[in-house]
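Let us walk through a complete example step by step. Step one is to write down the protein sequence. Step two is to encode the small molecule, flavin-adenine dinucleotide, as a SMILES string so that its atoms and bonds are unambiguous. Step three, shown after the inputs, is the structure prediction itself.
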Amino acid sequence: MPSFESVTNLPSECSVLICGGGPIGLTQALLLNQLNIDCVVLEKYPTRLGAPKAHAVNPRTIEIFRQLKLDTERLRRLGTGRDEAGLVWFLNTLNGTRLGSLPYERQDDAVLELTPEPFFNVAQPELEDWLRTEARRRGVQLCDGYEWLSRSDGVSTVRERKTKQDHQIKSKYLIACDGSRSNVRSSLDIPFDEKAPPAEMMTFHFNADITKLAGHRRGALYFFFNPIVKDYAVIVTHQLASNHVLVAKCGRGIPFDESYFTQERSKSIINRLLGTKDLQYDVLATKAWYMSVNVARTYQADDTFLVGDAAHAFPPTGGLGLNTGVADAHNLAWKIATVEGGFAEPSFLKTYDAERRPIAHTNADQSAHNRRQIGLLQDAVKAHDLGPLLEETKANGSTAQNGASSNKSHVDGSDINKTKQSQSGPSPSEEECDSFTDQINKLMVEPDSRAIIDHALELQREHFDSLDLQLGYVYGKQRDTSRNCADYVPSGEVGARLPHAIIDIGASELSTLDLVTPGRFTLVVTKDTVLGNTPPELVKSVNRVILGSDFTLRNQAFWQTLNKLDRSVGLLVRPDQHILARVSSVEDLQGVLKAYLQ
Ligand SMILES: Cc1cc2nc3c(=O)[nH]c(=O)nc-3n(C[C@H](O)[C@H](O)[C@H](O)COP(=O)(O)OP(=O)(O)OC[C@H]3O[C@@H](n4cnc5c(N)ncnc54)[C@H](O)[C@@H]3O)c2cc1C
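Step three: the predicted structure of the complex.
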C-alpha cells in the first residue's frame, strides 16, 4: 500500500489551495508549479488506497505529462506495454470458452503518426506515487492528513486529522480535486446532475499469479460471462503475475456489503471466473462503491473551480475518468497563470467551464453507451433476447464496425438502473454454472447464434478504440456523436489540439507539440512569413518559432497544408497546445489576443 512520507506544516496563505491529493490534485499542483504559481495540496488521508482503479492512460494524458517535462519513459516502465496488455478478452472462464478478443486501444506503431506518446497501462497507485514523488521533488507543498472543511471570504478551515485541530489558510483560488463525493462542490450547492441512477458495485483486489493459467490469453481486460456474477464482470489485470481487480455488479451472491466477503467467499467467485480451485493467492481488499454518470452543473463558483471526479463521474467503461481530469487540470492551470501574470481579465477564467464541461458530457455519454453495448453481448450469450440482434445481424452483416444500434447522445441509464437493487440469495450452484457453459459452447458452434455473438463482439470495438475522444475534441465545438470514436483525423481547426508531426531540432527528434512552451502562446511561422516583429508588450507572452530555421518537419507538406501555414499566415497556438487562430499581421495578433483574453 502506498504511503505518504510526511505531513508538511500547513502555511497560512497561498495563491491556490488544492483540495485533494489524488491523481488530479497532484497533476494540478505540478502544472501550477511549472508556471510558478504557488499552491498547497491538502489530502485528507495519510495513505491512499492500495487497490488500483484506473489503468488506461491515454495519449493526451501522457502528452500533458510530457509538456510538464515529467519522465514519461520511467512511467512506462512502471506499467505494462502492448505485449502483455494489448488485448481485451471475452470469456466464460479464463481457461474455458472463448467468445473472442479485441485489440486494446491504439498501441501499434502506426499510431506514432498521430501522437508522440501512445496509450499504455499503469496501475493508478503506481501513477500516483510517480506524480507524488515528482511533486515533492519540485517543491510542491503537500499537506497530508488535513481535511478541508469550509471556506469563507477566501479563508478555508482545515482540520488536522491526527490532532483534530482546526487551522485557517487563505488563498486567492480554491480548486476542488476531492473526488466524486466532493465536499467543496456540496458546500457550494453545485448540483451533480445525474445522467443515470447509480449502480451498486463491488471490487476485489487480489494478487494471484495467473500467467500460466492465462497462457497465450494475455491482456489488460478480461470480460466474463458466467452466472457466478450478475450479467458480466471484468478482471482488470495490472500485472499478470501479481495484481488484479475484479469489478462486479452486486446481485445474487454478491451483496453490497464489504463485510460479507471473507477470503473464502471472495475466492469462490474469483476462482469460478479463473476456472481453477488450485491457485494460491490473497484477496487484498474488497470495496463497495456506486457507479454513476454525473456531471456538475457548473465548474466554477467565483474563485473556486471543480476539476476531475469532483466535476464529473463516469462508469469505468472507456477508461476516461482520470484522463478527462488530467485535461481539465491542464486547461485551468495556464488560464490562472495568465490572469495572475496580468495578461488576462479574471472573467477569462469562465472559459474553463465553457470548454471542459461539454467534453465531460460527451465522455460520460460514451462511457454509459459502452456499458450498454456490453449488454448486447451479454444478451447474446445468455440467449435472452436474440430476436432484435439476429435481425440487426442480418440487416448489417456480421462485420458491422460501429454501434449504431443505440443512441449515444442520450443516456437513459436503463442497463445501469437494472442493477440498482441488489438481489439477495446464494450464489449459483456448480451445476448451474456448468449448464451455462454447455449452453455457451452450443451457441459458439451453431452458425446463427455464433454470427450473433460475433456481431455483438464487433459492436464492442469502439469501446476499446476511442482515439477521437482522446485526441480529437475541439474546444467550442460539439462532437458529432454519430462519428465512430476510433476515427481520429488530425485537424487544424480553431479549438483543436495542434496536430502532431515529427520535427527535428538540431539532433533531437521531437513533436510539433514540443514547440509549445508552457505558459506562453506560440506563433508558428515559416521562414518567409511576412508578419512584422512581435510588439514589445507581447514578447513575454508570445513565443515565435520559425519553420525552416528553429525546426524542420519530416513531412512538411502534410502538416503545413493541414495548418494552412504560408507566407501570409502565422498559426497561433495556446499554451495548452490547442489552436487559437491564424493571424496575418501583428495588428491581427494583438487584436486576437486582446479579444480572447478579456
Ligand atoms: C474500477 C475503476 C477503474 C477505472 N479505470 C480507469 C481508467 O482505466 N482510466 C481512467 O482514466 N479512469 C479510470 N477510472 C476513474 C479514475 O479512477 C478516477 O477518475 C480518478 O481516480 C479521479 O481522480 P481524482 O483525483 O479526481 O479523485 P480521487 O481519486 O477520488 O481523489 C480525491 C482525493 O481527495 C481527497 N479528499 C476528499 N475529500 C477531501 C477533503 N475534504 N479534504 C482533503 N482531501 C480530500 C481524497 O482522500 C482523495 O485522495 C476508474 C475507476 C474505477 C472505479
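Step four is interpretation. The first strand starts at residue 13 and ends at 19.
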